[in-house]
Amino acid sequence: MLAEKPRLPHYDAIIVGSGVAGALVAKELGRAGKKVLILEAGPPAPVNINSYMRQFYADWSKVPESPYPPDLSKDPSLFNVGRPNSLSLTADKWRNPTKSYLIQTGKSPFASTYERVGGGTAMHWLGTSLRLLPNDFRMNARFGRFVDWPIDYGKLEEWYCLAEREIGVSADSGDQSYHGLTFSQEYPMPGIPKSLTDMAVADAVDGLTVDGITLTRASVRSTPAGRNSQPYQNRRVCGGNTNCIPICPIQAKYDPTVTLNDALGTGNVEICYQTVACRLEADPDKPISKIFFLQYEDLTGGHSKEDFRTAEKYIIAAHAIETPRLLLMSKTDKMPDGVANGSKLVGKNLMDHPFYVPWALLPEGKQVFPYRGPLSTSGIEDFRDGDFRKTRAAYRIEIGNEGWNFAIGGDPAITTVDFVNGLNISGVNDGGIDGHSEALFGQPLRDRLNSVITRQIRLGFLVEQEPKETNCVGISREHVDHLNLPRPEIRYELSDYEKGGLLAAKKTADAIFARLGAKQLTKEPDLDDPSALELSDNGKSLRLLYMGAGHIMGTYRMGDDPKKSVVDSFQKSHDHDNLYLIGSGVFPTAATGNPTLTLAALCLRTAEKIIQSLPKA
Amino acid sequence: MTEVSRRTILAGVAATAATAAFTSVVPLQALAQDKPEVEQIPADDLKAFIGLSEKLTGIPAARLAPGLTSPGVDPFEIASVYFNTAKKVHSFNPMIQAFKAASTDEAVATFMKDPKTLYLCRSIILAWYLGAWYVPETLEAEAMSSPEAKANKLLATGKPAAKRYNMVQCTVISPKTYSQGWVWRIAQAHPMGYANSRFGYWSGKPPDMKDFIS
Questions:
Q1: Residues A382-412, buried b or exposed e (16+ Cβ, 10 A)?
Q2: A240 to each of A357, A521, A549, how far by Cα in Å?
Q3: A414/A442 same-domain check
Q4: Tens digit of each residue's pLDDT (9 = 90 or more) over A509-560
Q5: Are strands A10-16 and A36-39 parallel, antiparallel or unpaired?
Q6: In a domain? residue B142
Q7: Cα–Cα distance for residue pair A120/A236, rounded to 1 Å
Q8: How far is CA B95 from the centre of its chain?
Q9: Is A86:A65 a contact under the CB 8 Å cutoff?
């Protein structure tokens, strides 16, 4: 498909990226009558979802990236818009530029991925829409760690309410009133019902004390989710397809194309797909004067000559890796560190929620029937806050409804192949003679798989990550994409703060599984697994695996001090008066809540500010 | 509230359309474009394949191939798809002819002892369960990867492997076959991304396994 040229020479605002951040600001500006151009690097979402669904059904890996272009198996340098993917994190691939789009040069892999398509990465999000806690905004004031946000919970609360309405969040405010959370408005829809797995965990943790915190049945709370518990925004009620990630087949889960369609429907917003912003032009401390872009026809084809457009406001919403990439690619002799980088903090303080995912087999007779309902419906939030944050990371617990699918990378297929072919990749097939694996067929196979799969359980621990300047995004000097633009270069490792949180998480997992009477099958990862972490528990060493949570944060942090931050609390650059850098890249600290709702709230607040600062029509 | 009616499973699209008010219409549309390449298969060969598949999978033949007993109610004709996939393996036709001559448990036991047919049988089981094709040679190589297995050819004793994305290599035969995999029904669940259920069903227990497979 031919990329369309922008129709006007000058706009009120040009937005880079059509994900949740870009789409929200576009919609608000469009509704206020402002002329907006969105430059989207990737192709549009299909007219209906069927082509994405077919791609998903046919893909063997079913990883979060599987429904979306480009092809996961090919060399990323062949594509005009590369992207990281979950399959390129193994020992043989993560440092191989022909397999991994991100050029990873750090000690450990940055394990999260993102999409470059219309709608952005929240096409494959889970929908979890937790608010951050009051203390999450004041880590320094409260715990003497890291930095405080330039905005507090009280100021953001009204924007959270609006974001929950835009996304369509199902939850109960009474159930979410913990660790100081307050609500001026009820959620727009009632909470999502709990799964059988949730209820089993609730029974098991009742009375369990970990790290001085005693849990009750009520500690298992229905997770606020951008999934419809009632018809909402002309979208259907959740059908429990157990597929929020990578794609909801019936769009009961919010995705940014919902907001993007509203934005385009205002008649004031124009979008150019397959249009890659490659350079911002400005002088130091002066407004941005132009944005340059390249356009391409197909993912591996040629591209147009560099062109540009101008606007009153430039809004970069390309997520926490591509946004710093664009700023750094815009460097000139006058600005050798790139645009908006007087603080030299662009690209620094990259964060994620290192994700520990232990799994277990429940005892005979304790079936919880996974692979039913949304991927996750409940969590335990008690460990998200406490004095322990002075010394180690907090975490939240996500309870999975998808058995071992995510935990072992592809169940029920792996367990099925194990019992058919006498293997034991799952760890559960050791019940034969002398602990050997069994190879079954016929009714014994059928009955064994029923028995095992209906008792699968996994937990997930999302661990707070400390902001560190040494965890960073740069641009590669050596490796380029098919547009000849430098690819993102990442340095990343986990600190003792996160390792402390992971160790505490592991102990909690062990305690919960013991209470469930479950046989834990979580294995120590191979030594050569790049995501294997060595931990020490009172001198005893152990190894565990962290995964990425897909929560990319922190590379253009917000703050009041231009020397110590890149943008202010309205996500406006300290250096360039008409430049906004929006999205989870502004988070000064990571907390434990999934970032989408908070970034949506911040973007709605920013949109109002931008509208106020534009001349009235 | 029944999560999945027996009729829905039996009759596929027909029943699903009848309950369209609360079913996932979109995935069905996605599958409708997936035209199977059905070559003409001798009827008795296909019947033998389905009979053998019943013994290998533990799923009644009438459920694997509803069209066998009730012509016209099997819109997916998945048995033909798997037949045409499996027939590319040399030992397939001799095995089908042997089963046609003696459709007994003993015949199947013989297939499951001969490496020439053992791994093909496992490929066929996995096709029915997962909708994916695992090449017999790959299964043999994986099963024989441990020293004990090499020493004692047919006692497969694969060892735990912690490597991630360590799935045995396979090809999803088609988008349609993924959603028709029997493992999901054996698990009393539904293919991920392909449910036909009402909001909130996950708070209650599913019907018994027998309601899904018999």
A1: bbbbeebbeebbbbbbbbbbbbbbbbbbbbb
A2: 22, 27, 22
A3: yes
A4: 999 999 999 999 998 888 889 999 999 998 999 999 999 999 999 999 999 9
A5: parallel
A6: no
A7: 21
A8: 18
A9: yes
Confidence of residue B16 (pLDDT cuts 50, 70, 90): very low
CA atoms within 13 A on the CB side of A42: 22
- Residues of chain B found within 8 Å of residue A529, distances taken between Cβ atoms: 162-164
The answer, for B110 touching chain A at a CB cutoff of 8 Å, is: no
Q: d(Cα B29, Cα A325) in Å, to the nearest integer?
A: 40
A42 in a structural domain: yes
Whether the CB-CB separation of A598 and A190 falls below 8 Å is answered with: no
Asked if residue B6 is part of any domain, the answer here is yes
CB contact, 8 Å: B162 with chain A? yes
Q: Is residue B107 part of a domain?
A: no
Question: What ipTM does the predicted assembly reach?
Answer: 0.95
Residue B5 or residue A514, greater confidence: A514
Nearest by CB: A445 against B58, B157, B193: B58
Q: What is the pLDDT of residues A437-488, one digit of tens each?
A: 899 999 999 999 999 999 999 999 999 999 999 999 999 999 999 999 999 9
A457 and A578 assigned to the same domain: no
Strand A269-272 to strand A10-16: parallel, antiparallel, or no bridges (unpaired)? Answer: unpaired
CB contact residues (below 8 A), chain B span 116-135, against chain A: 121-122, 125-126, 129-130, 132, 134
Quote the domain boundaries for residue B30: 1-34+175-214
CA distance A242 to B193: 6
Query: What's the gap in Å between the CA of A499 and the closest CA on chain B?
Result: 21
In the listed set A545, A574, A604, which residue is the last one of a domain according to the structure?
A: A545
Which residues of chain A from 6 to 25 reach within 8 Å of chain B, CB to CB?
Answer: none
Is residue A174 located within the same domain as residue A284? yes
Instruction: Yes or no: say if A149 and A137 are a contact pair by the CB < 8 Å rule.
Output: yes
Indicate yes or no: CB of B129 within 8 angstroms of CB of A250: no
Residues within 8 A of B (CB atoms), A 128-157 only: none
pLDDT band for A584, please (50, 70, 90 cuts). Answer: very high
User: Domain of A447?
Assistant: 196-223+355-464+495-545
Lowest-pLDDT range, A42-46, A168-172, B13-17, B134-138?
Answer: B13-17
CA distance A193 to chain B (A): 6
The percent of residues in chain A predicted with pLDDT above 70, rounded, is 100
Confidence of residue B214 (pLDDT cuts 50, 70, 90): confident
The number of domains in chain B is 1
Indicate the pLDDT class of residue B14, thresholds 50, 70 and 90: very low
Highest mean pLDDT among B14-23, B52-61, B165-174: B52-61
User: What is the Cα Rg of chain B in Å?
Assistant: 18
Dihedral through CA A369, CA A371, CA A373, CA A379, nearest 10? 80
Q: Are strands A307-316 and A579-581 parallel, antiparallel or unpaired?
A: parallel
The reply to whether A416 and A519 lie within a common domain is yes
Residue B17 lies in a domain: yes
By the 8 A CB rule, do A384 and A253 touch?
A: no
- Report the residue from B164, B168, B203 with minimal CB separation from A90: B164
